[in-house]
DNA sequence: ATGTCACTACTTTAGTGA
């Protein structure tokens, strides 16, 4: 089973890129972020024609998240993260596909630091921690997938010094993410590629992709039982090189049907 | 500070968020 996360940076503006990638990669499940359109503008027909059922949580202009499932309809379980009822931003959607709870998220960017946007990001991270702990207590298979807007460690950024005071890399943000993962989640890409430089995002500015000046922002966190089924975790880096593409590349994992034996087990 | 995108409303160009 192949499960992906992809910040499309405008689901309508990038529809051709998304459809091309779906056809080439054929993921079973996809969490999408930055739809950048209201619910009514979600391109459900084109996505269905590509063979995917979908649930989505849109918003005019900004944010917006969706979950796609090949040849089936995802079973919607939640829109929005609990903890701040007045929060209007569409940043969390959750659905069950093949018995797995998929939490699709688009964490606030948080820039500029300091300021109210940064404070909102820290609150959102705390809300995510609280809710993620509840999910783990259910003891069911869960994947939290999305654009976390967090650079977890120095290995995940081309030039750490330049990003020290950026909301993606501030110490308190990394600390909050570290606590979240420490609840018992497995960062799938790191699990299979420890010590390797892997990026999922390259700025549009200054030929960042050409220089491989990237950041690792898009993550798939697996509940303990699912971590035992993890066989592959990759970034579809080539997609970032396509015309009219998103500034993020898709990230995907492969899960086996049952627990597998790995060296460190 | 800069750079480059998508999106929106509307003075089809300028704001804004990333």
In short:
The chain is an alpha+beta fold and 265 residues long.
What is the CA-CA span between the terminal residues?
21 Å
The total strand number stands at: 14
Name given to the CATH architecture: 4-Layer Sandwich
Largest sheet: 6 strands, mixed
What's the arrangement of strands in the largest beta sheet? 3-4-2-1-14-13
Q: In percent terms, what proportion of residues is strand? A: 25-35%
Q: Strand pairing plus helix content: what structural class?
A: alpha+beta
Helix and strand element order: EHEHEEEEEHEHHEHEEEHEE
CATH topology-level fold name:
Deoxyribonuclease I, Chain A
Q: For this structure, what is the CATH class?
A: Alpha Beta
Give a structural overview.
It contains 7 helices and 14 strands. Helix 3 runs parallel beside helix 5. With 265 residues, the chain is of the alpha+beta class. The model has no long low-confidence stretch (mean pLDDT 96). It has one domain: Endonuclease/exonuclease/phosphatase (Deoxyribonuclease I, Chain A), CATH 3.60.10.10. A 6-stranded mixed beta sheet has the order 3-4-2-1-14-13. Strands 5-6-7-8-12-9 form a 6-stranded mixed beta sheet. A two-stranded antiparallel ribbon has the order 10-11. The chain is globular. Helix 1 links the parallel strand 1 and strand 2. The protein binds one DNA strand of 18 nucleotides through loops.
